[in-house]
């Protein structure tokens, strides 16, 4: 094939992105700066030293501006020991992926006619990490596992550095070797493509960076961060945990276990099938997820909220309701997409060839799974009581994320299904919450 024909073929397969999401390059710049900033702010704006949130008088205090201008403050964001530990953790995840046995399964068919093979061993990686953690705590005591609490800022910086390095590497390498690009990440605008992710599936040999980061070094770290927060509370209280901490720890561990146990389910989600691997996913997976989703547990490490029986019952009911909706809705769709329909749900045929469920959870709203996910998020914050609004950051942010994600998915489905999607929307008018939204 002549080189001009090869170039033509490549640009046919990788057309220029002509419409922006996230308000284009300006939005991409703001989020690229805003996500790391917010991750730090949630720490400085909710900690034992500063208060949660800090009193208004201290925020207005000009000393804060002075502090920000000192090199000591900026140096304090870096912690070499935490960075080495973080690198050790990342290496542990890679080695576990490599050595732990697991089936190789096919991903979805890509537009170049190929399928990526993924190794399924996130759950065994999670169990191994939990086993090692339990061993350390049993052998050396809970005080040996409070380092994630003590070195919080250093770990945040290390994870941010990792996401920046990976996104720069992926952006640069996307220009070599005729890579398959993400349809949304090939605009030609550096900051936008860097943020959205230019290459669809950056790989090193058979190691797929995107799916690896999605489930292992960030998500499992979230569980370990929570355990560390519980150890901190345990040590401070002289050997007990509050009911609120037990609930938050239990819910978060369950959520992580559920995600890694159902590893094959991620290969059909938007992040894997559609988005490239850029700063958006790298920072989301590696920094944002473990260090902001664990805010409730970090708060409870220094604020020992007791819920009592009624409070506990309310939190448990909200969480289990959310989990039931989340799991059964995702299960119905996964079964259906894999050719099974055990509940005999009704569906409509489409010109595209794939069918759309029109009863069960998917007949009640177009994203019932988002509603369940959000209810769980709300329950984790309810467990922290009502003394501070800061611990409600997660459900508020998550609501915005899910609404935005629903709009993105709706647009994409409209492109995929055309008139059929309009007909489906008439049959299922609610977007996320049945009868409300
Ligand atoms: P969905 O699981 O809702 O998948 C949307 C896709 O499902 C559509 O593009 C379409 O794809 C298919 N679909 C839509 N309607 C139907 C129907 N009626 N019948 C059959 N298939 C249908 O979205 P996501 O991938 O965004 O989310 C997956 C999970 O991840 C959710 O549970 C979500 O809550 C969770 N999540 C969690 C986040 C977190 O930070 N904790 C962040 C984002 C998501 P097609 O027809 O091509 O198959």
UniProtKB/TrEMBL annotation:
Q: What catalytic activity does the UniProt entry give for this protein? A: 4,4-dimethyl-5alpha-cholesta-8,24-dien-3beta-ol + NADP(+) = 4,4-dimethyl-5alpha-cholesta-8,14,24-trien-3beta-ol + NADPH + H(+)
Any one Gene Ontology cellular component term annotated for this protein: endoplasmic reticulum membrane
Tell me where in or outside the cell this protein is found: Membrane
- One of this protein's GO BP terms? ergosterol biosynthetic process
Q: Which UniProt keywords apply?
A: Lipid biosynthesis, Lipid metabolism, Membrane, NADP, Oxidoreductase, Steroid biosynthesis, Steroid metabolism, Sterol biosynthesis, Sterol metabolism, Transmembrane, Transmembrane helix
Domain of life, per the record? Eukaryota
Q: How does it sit in the membrane?
A: Multi-pass membrane protein
Q: Which PROSITE patterns match?
A: STEROL_REDUCT_2
Q: Where are the transmembrane segments?
A: 20-43, 83-100, 120-140, 152-172, 238-257, 277-295, 307-326, 374-402
Instruction: List the protein's name.
Output: Delta(14)-sterol reductase ERG24
Q: Which organism is it from?
A: Thelephora terrestris
Instruction: Recite the lineage of the species.
Output: Eukaryota, Fungi, Dikarya, Basidiomycota, Agaricomycotina
């Amino acid at each position: 094939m002549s080189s001009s024909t090869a170039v033509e073929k490549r640009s046919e397969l990788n057309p220029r992105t002509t419409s922006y999401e996230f308000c284009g390059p300006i939005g991409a710049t703001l989020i690229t700066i805003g996500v790391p900033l917010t991750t730090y702010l949630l720490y400085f704006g909710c900690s034992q030293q500063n208060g949660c949130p800090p009193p208004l008088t201290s925020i207005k205090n000009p000393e804060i501006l002075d502090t920000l201008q000192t090199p000591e403050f900026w140096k304090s964001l870096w912690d070499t020991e935490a960075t080495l530990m973080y690198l050790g953790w990342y290496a542990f995840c890679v080695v576990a992926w490599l050595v732990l046995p697991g089936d190789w399964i096919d991903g979805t068919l890509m537009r170049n006619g190929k399928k990526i093979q993924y190794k399924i061993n996130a759950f065994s990686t999670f169990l191994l990490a939990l086993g090692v953690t339990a061993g350390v705590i049993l052998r050396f005591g809970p005080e040996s596992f409070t380092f994630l609490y003590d070195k919080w800022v250093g770990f945040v910086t290390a994870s941010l550095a990792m996401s920046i390095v990976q996104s720069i590497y992926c952006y640069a390498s996307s220009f070599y070797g005729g890579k398959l690009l993400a349809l949304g990440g090939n605009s030609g605008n550096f900051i936008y493509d860097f943020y959205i992710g230019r290459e669809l599936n950056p790989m090193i040999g058979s190691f797929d960076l995107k799916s690896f980061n999605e489930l292992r070094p960030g998500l499992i770290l979230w569980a370990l961060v929570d355990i560390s927060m519980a150890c901190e509370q345990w040590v401070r209280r002289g050997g007990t945990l509050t009911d609120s901490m037990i609930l938050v720890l239990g819910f978060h561990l369950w959520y992580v276990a559920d995600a890694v146990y159902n590893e094959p389910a991620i290969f059909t989600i938007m992040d894997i099938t559609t988005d490239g691997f850029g700063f958006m996913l790298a920072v989301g997976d590696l920094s944002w997820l473990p260090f902001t989703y664990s805010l409730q547990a970090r708060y409870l490490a220094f604020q020992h909220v007791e819920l009592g029986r009624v409070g506990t019952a309310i939190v448990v009911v909200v969480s289990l309701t959310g989990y039931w909706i989340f799991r059964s809705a995702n299960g119905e769709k996964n079964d259906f997409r894999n050719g099974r329909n055990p509940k005999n749900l009704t569906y409509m045929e489409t010109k595209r060839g794939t069918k759309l469920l029109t009863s069960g959870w998917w007949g009640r709203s177009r994203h019932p799974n988002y509603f369940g996910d959000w209810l769980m998020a709300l329950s984790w914050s309810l467990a922290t009581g009502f003394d501070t609004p800061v611990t409600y950051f997660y459900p508020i942010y998550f609501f915005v994320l899910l609404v935005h994600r629903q709009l993105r998915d709706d647009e994409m489905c409209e492109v995929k299904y055309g008139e059929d999607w309009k007909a489906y929307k008439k049959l299922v008018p609610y977007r996320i919450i049945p009868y409300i939204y």
